[in-house]
Amino acid sequence: MDLNATFHDLEGASVFITGGGSGIGAALTEGFLRQGAKVAFVGRSDASPFVERMARETGNRPLFIRCDITDVTGLKAAIAEAAEAHGPIGVLVNNAANDQRHATLDVDEEFWDWSQAINLKAYFFACQAVVPGMQKMGGGAIVNFTSISYMMGNSGYAAYTTANSGINGLTRSLAREFGPDRIRVNALAPGWVLTEKQLDKWATPEALAAHLDRQCLKDHLAPQDIVESTLFLASRASRMISGQAMVVDGGVVVSG
């Protein structure tokens, strides 16, 4: 990964990332490692090969903790383990999500609860778990990943877009509540980032061409495009930015 900027204050920072072993999350883990941060991440699948590759390629070994973030008790335990290993969490990146497609008329209560648990509930409780440590340190940064899907009014995954919208409400409320503690809370809304999952499931030539036509910038988004924006929001370079939703989508939606 060839980064365009270095954020010196992230060197040595204790960073916790959900879903940090695959897709955008893996790129985030690598990006923070290359800044010299102490990175812990969680995921459901074994990430040992990824950990070894990161240690070899960056010279900085991340801490992987296997965890299903819908298990709030397990998530809180993972955050405590990371804080014990690396010091109090100074940067939380709520990245893990699941955008499984679904028809509204097929959704039952079990699916709805599962979707909210992974896409919204886990975000709230991860924030709750790191705030006390950030308060003691005199500040911190939280980056909550949302999506432009709800801004576009996309169909095909109403439970997911509901959670996306809720993440923005959560972000604004926490930014207001904990701003006096110098805890910054922002949302980051990626556009269509061509991860392996997206390429395998939905990125047909026709769909890609149609989406690119909607972008102002005529390049498809890659995971690295999201990494550097996240690093900025995590660093003191954005010290007076809080309660905001940063859109990184090549110019599809217009915010403000």
UniProtKB/TrEMBL annotation:
Keyword match Cell inner membrane: no
Q: Which SMART domains match?
A: PKS_KR
What domain of life? Bacteria
User: What is an example of a GO molecular function annotated in this UniProt entry?
Assistant: D-xylose 1-dehydrogenase (NAD+) activity
Under SUPFAM superfamilies, the record lists: NAD(P)-binding Rossmann-fold domains
Q: Answer whether the UniProt record assigns the keyword Oxidoreductase to this protein.
A: yes
Q: Enumerate the spans annotated as Ketoreductase domain.
A: 13-205
Q: Which InterPro entries match?
A: KR_dom (IPR057326), NAD(P)-bd_dom_sf (IPR036291), SDR_fam (IPR002347)
Q: Which CDD domains match?
A: SDR_c
Gene3D superfamilies from the UniProt entry: NAD(P)-binding Rossmann-like Domain
Key words of the record: Oxidoreductase
- What EC number(s) does the entry state? 1.1.1.175
Q: What class of enzyme is it?
A: oxidoreductase
Stated family: Belongs to the short-chain dehydrogenases/reductases (SDR) family.
Q: What is this protein called?
A: D-xylose 1-dehydrogenase
Q: What organism is recorded for this protein?
A: Tritonibacter horizontis
